[in-house]
Amino acid sequence: MWIKVLMAMNVFLYRLTRGAFGSRMAGQSVLLLPTIGRKSGKAFTIPLNYYRDGENYVVVASNWGKEYHPAWFYNLMQQGRTEIQVKDRKMHVQASQATGDDYDRLWKVVTGKNDYYIRYQKQTDRKIPLIILTPEG
Question: What pTM was computed for the model?
Answer without folding.
Answer: 0.94
